[in-house]
């Protein structure tokens, strides 16, 4: 594992820092720290043109008219600023000439009027540039966010099981995507600042060529210090990424309605607060150490820059004394130097912003590149037709963080109109196999075929013919109707049928606004449902979707006995009536008796398969599991009472 970044020191570990938090504060992506520490400032600067071009490209996509307006207006305003300075020389010449003071003031008035007019025009043009930039920032942020979510919603599901991918996505969302509009603004400021400095440099060069190198010497130290400080902060932010994600999750659990009851039942408050405080203390200690180092670097830059500025004014004094520059020219030079120093510092500040934003923006671009590699390939086969047979053949699947396959050489099949049950103990691979059948995962070896065509060749279109009742279903903050119909078109007759089959009709009947009730208590009109009611909502989604294959993963885990019996009776009837294939995953062994075929999984392998009667005749795992549950519902014979 890579050593911690030297710019992100950690405090001495406490009791709550060890154990559970260790894998969260020292993640696998920390190998980037060494690479970042070895990267020189020059290497980072050479990356800036590429990042700048990418950021401006986003702005061009957002609104090219606003981009061009901001670009032209800011450049023109910078040139006008130098023009006004050139006219200041005429003002000073008139004021320092011989003659009575009123005559000199009168002679200076035309030049003063020009300076005032040019300054007013430059200010007006800057307002136009600022407006265009404000509009551009909002529009750029919008399309960047849409790009991110377009990629995250299309990426293969297995990518979300990859810790490195998850951390990259967090960093991208946490700050990376929001740096794009800031970087565009900073790039335009750099451009306008460069134009302004070139104009001022021309003025200084005319006054005396020696002033240009003195100007650079006086401002470069401060610019170096600012860039060095930005790098320190970025390294610290990257180091803290996973810990912040952990802290955010803990904070969400401590303030969430869903976890409030269990938090209190298990008296978790003190433990969670200690974990949260430990992570917060670690972050505080790291950022305080960084702030101290930044202060020292900036102080060094300020001292060197101040000495260089003093040297510049001393040289001006010498030039005036020896007669190399007239008094008016010296006065103009002082103004030009002050303005140039301010402009140079602003330019370096903007360059620093480009550099700093570029570091975070690189997280966004790197994640987008990573996400694109996780997108499904272009389909090589047409959309699937009506289901005849789905078959998993010799499929092996391993999760990105898994040490052993979750499924190994698994073969199962289900035909239209059949009900197939997957049973086994926890961790046997049932849910993983269901996700393969649902097209959510693709095996690393073997195939999953729809009517003989590999899912991988069909692509995401296979999901259009599959309905999945997910074990850990999502409680969407939407109305009851939308929680059933999801993204499909509204069909009231189909909605009523799905509600009847799943028992959701009883839930909706008790809601204050029926189907239009918002199922989220974080809003004023929202209501809260019980776990069993949410289970019925999730089951209703499966029945509402028009599909040839219905996969139900623990669809009754939160239902009462009556609702559970109703569901299993309904799902078998649904398969016979519609001709759809049903894959049922459940620990309720009695409910699989009517299945056409049962597959028993153990540690990722199919160890038995057949009908209920066939498996009961075998002295195998299925009979063992079935008998265990059956015995639990059978009254044991009373033990004989011994004679007194």
Automatic annotation (TrEMBL):
Residue ranges, annotated region (Disordered)? 1-24
Kindly state which keywords UniProt assigns to this record, in alphabetical order. Answer: ATP-binding, Membrane, Nucleotide-binding, Transmembrane, Transmembrane helix
Per the UniProt record, which residue ranges are transmembrane? Answer: 67-87, 107-128, 183-204, 210-230, 303-329
Where in or outside the cell it occurs: the entry states: Cell membrane
Q: Which GO terms describe its molecular function?
A: ATP binding
Q: Does the keyword Kinase apply?
A: no
User: Is Membrane given among the entry's keywords?
Assistant: yes
Q: Where is the ABC transmembrane type-1 domain?
A: 68-356
Its membrane topology: Multi-pass membrane protein
Checking PROSITE patterns in the record gives: ABC_TM1F (PS50929), ABC_TRANSPORTER_2 (PS50893)
Biased-composition ranges for Pro residues? 1-12
The record places domain ABC transporter at 390-628
Name this polypeptide is given = ABC transporter ATP-binding protein
In which organism is this protein found? Nocardiopsis lambiniae
Q: What is the lineage of its organism?
A: Bacteria, Bacillati, Actinomycetota, Actinomycetes, Streptosporangiales
């Amino acid at each position: 594992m890579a050593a911690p970044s030297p710019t992100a020191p950690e405090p001495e570990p406490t009791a709550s820092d060890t154990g559970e938090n260790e894998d969260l504060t020292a993640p696998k992506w920390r190998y980037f720290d060494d690479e970042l520490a070895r990267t020189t400032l020059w290497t980072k600067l050479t990356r800036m043109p590429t990042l700048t071009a990418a950021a401006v490209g986003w702005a061009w996509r957002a609104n090219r008219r606003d981009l061009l307006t901001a670009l032209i207006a800011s450049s023109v305003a910078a040139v006008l600023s130098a023009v006004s300075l050139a006219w200041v020389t005429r003002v000073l010449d008139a004021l320092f000439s011989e003659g009575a003071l009123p005559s000199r003031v009168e002679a200076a008035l035309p030049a003063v009027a020009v300076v005032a007019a040019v300054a007013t025009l430059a200010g007006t043009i800057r307002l136009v540039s600022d407006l265009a930039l404000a509009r551009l920032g909002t529009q750029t942020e919008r399309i960047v966010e849409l790009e991110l979510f377009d990629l995250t919603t299309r990426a293969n599901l297995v990518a979300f099981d990859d810790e490195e991918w998850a951390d990259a996505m967090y960093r991208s969302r946490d700050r990376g995507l929001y740096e794009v509009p800031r970087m565009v603004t900073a790039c335009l400021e750099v451009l306008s600042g460069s134009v302004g400095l070139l104009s001022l440099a021309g003025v200084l060069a005319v006054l005396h060529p020696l002033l240009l190198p003195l100007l650079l010497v006086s401002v470069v130290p401060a610019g170096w210090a600012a860039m060095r400080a930005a790098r320190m902060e970025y390294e610290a932010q990257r180091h803290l990424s996973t810990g912040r994600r952990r802290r955010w999750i803990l904070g969400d659990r401590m303030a969430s309605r869903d976890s409030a009851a269990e938090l209190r039942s298990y008296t978790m408050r003190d433990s969670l607060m200690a974990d949260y405080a430990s992570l917060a203390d670690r972050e505080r200690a790291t950022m305080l150490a960084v702030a101290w180092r930044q202060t020292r670097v900036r102080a060094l830059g300020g001292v060197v820059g101040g000495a260089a500025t003093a040297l510049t004014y001393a040289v001006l004094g010498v030039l005036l004394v020896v007669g190399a520059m007239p008094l008016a020219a010296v006065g103009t030079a002082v103004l030009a130097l002050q303005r140039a120093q301010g402009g140079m510092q602003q330019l370096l500040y903007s360059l620093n912003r480009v550099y700093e934003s570029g570091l975070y923006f690189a997280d966004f671009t790197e994640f987008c590149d990573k996400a694109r590699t996780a997108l499904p390939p272009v389909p090589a086969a047409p959309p699937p037709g009506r289901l005849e047979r789905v078959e998993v053949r010799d499929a092996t699947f391993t999760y990105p963080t898994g040490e052993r396959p979750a499924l190994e050489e698994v073969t199962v099949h289900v035909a239209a109109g059949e009900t197939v049950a997957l049973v086994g103990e926890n961790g046997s691979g049932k849910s993983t196999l269901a996700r393969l059948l649902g097209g959510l995962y693709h095996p690393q070896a073997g195939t999953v075929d729809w009517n003989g065509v590999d899912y991988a060749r069909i692509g995401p279109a296979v999901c259009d013919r599959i309905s999945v009742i997910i074990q850990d279903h999502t409680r969407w903050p939407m109305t009851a109707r939308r929680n059933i119909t999801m993204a499909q078109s509204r069909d009231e007759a189909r909605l009523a049928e799905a509600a009847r089959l799943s028992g959701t009709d009883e839930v909706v009947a008790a809601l204050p606004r029926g189907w239009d009730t918002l199922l989220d208590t974080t809003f004023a009109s929202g209501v809260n449902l019980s776990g069993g009611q949410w289970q019925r909502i999730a089951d209703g989604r499966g029945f509402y979707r028009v599909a040839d294959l219905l996969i139900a993963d623990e669809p009754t885990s939160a239902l009462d006995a009556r609702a559970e019996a109703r569901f299993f009776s309904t799902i078998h009837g649904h398969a016979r009536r519609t001709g759809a294939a049903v894959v049922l995953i459940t620990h309720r062994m009695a409910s699989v008796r009517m299945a056409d075929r049962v597959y028993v999984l153990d540690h990722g392998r199919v160890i038995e398969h057949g009908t209920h009667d066939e498996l009961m005749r075998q002295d195998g795992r299925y009979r063992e599991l079935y008998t265990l549950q059956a015995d639990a519902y059978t009254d044991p014979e009373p033990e004989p009472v011994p004679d007194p």
